[in-house]
Amino acid sequence: MELRHLQAFVVVAEELNFRRAAARLQMTQPPLSQQIKRLEREVGVELLRRTTRHVALTGAGAAFLTEARRALQAARAAPEAARQAAAGQTGVVRLGFSGPTSHEVLVLMTRKFREYRPHVRLEVLGPVFGGEMVGRLGRDEVDAGLIRLPVAGSGLQVRELTRHGITVALPTEHPLATRREVGVLDLRDEPVVSHPTNRGAGIVSLIHKAFLKHGTSPNVVQEAPDTHTILSLVGAGVGVGFVPASAAHLKVPGVVLLPVSDIPPLPLALAWRKNDPNPALHALIDLLDEISAECRLKPDEV
Fold first, then answer.
1. Are residues 176 and 151 in the same domain?
2. Is 82 exposed, middle or buried (0-12, 13-18, 19+ CB in 10 A)?
3. Distance of CA 75 to CAs 5, 7, 195, 242, 282, Å?
């Protein structure tokens, strides 16, 4: 079904006069009549009832007119929709995040992107942890992900956004809880609730390296699937836990967070597939300098 035939029908239906319709379409009446007849044959029903003096829409013609106008409107809108999608003005970005300690950056990124690209749908999927995030990126289940460095995996582009200091979570009644900060040697004999290696590989590796520098290793008594669970177990007296300073917003009762002076901060980055053609994703990437600058202006909350 050709758009020019739909346009001809709409004009005839509006004018209810072939002569005036032909004038509007800048054509003669015979070809216009042929177009309408061809359209009726294609549809399979009579759309216009005509005599030598009168033209009227049939019931089928009235129904067809509504849909013909919609089709023409969609056809007019299609090129602009394509141009907007190609420019990253519309579309979808599926964003994974690495757990509650990335919430502050996630909120900032979402707000800025909505201001910059209000017609792009940002689908936030998560929480997705380190190794799982790499896998989901590889399987095209997310377009980008907030993830702790280092990232193991090829074919990814990574941009560091900020760094979070490492804190130790202690029960409020712990002898060290009144200190302003602690060091690794203060904690070498403490039972530790740890992230599992296959999920929190970045922070686990960081903690083990810090202990190894002092000739020891953390006394891991239990693993927990996420930061919130670690804090809950610390509050229950199971042990101490190492978490990014950004976990302070979780505010678990009975738990205090103290900076650990000799463990370096943990980077948080955005990762995405190299050569991903999604224009909406590239619109998000264009904002990373601004997002990173604002992240680094905010000190860790401890």
1. no
2. exposed
3. 13, 11, 54, 57, 27
Cα(first)–Cα(last) distance of the chain, in Å? Answer: 67
The tens digit of pLDDT for each residue in 248-271 reads 988 899 999 999 999 999 999 999
Total domains in the chain come to: 3
- Is the same domain home to 274 and 130? yes
Contacts 24+ apart (CB under 8 A), 38-44: 38/5, 39/1, 39/5, 39/6, 39/8, 39/9, 42/1, 42/5
User: Hey, what amino acid is at 151?
Assistant: V
Please state the pTM of the whole predicted model.
0.72
What is the distance between the alpha carbons of residues 135 and 272, in angstroms, rounded to a whole number? 11
Q: What is the pLDDT of residues 171-222, one digit of tens each?
A: 999 999 999 999 999 999 999 999 887 665 678 989 999 999 999 999 999 9
In terms of domains, do 285 and 141 share one? yes
Q: Binning pLDDT at 50, 70 and 90, where does residue 152 land?
A: confident
With H, G, I as helix, E, B as strand and everything else as coil, classify residue 124.
strand
Output the pLDDT for position 18: 92
Instruction: Quote the DSSP letter at residue 135.
Output: H
Where on the phi/psi map is residue 216: left (φ > 0), alpha (ψ -120 to 50), or beta? beta
Residues 173 and 260 in one domain: yes
Range of the domain at 62: 3-86
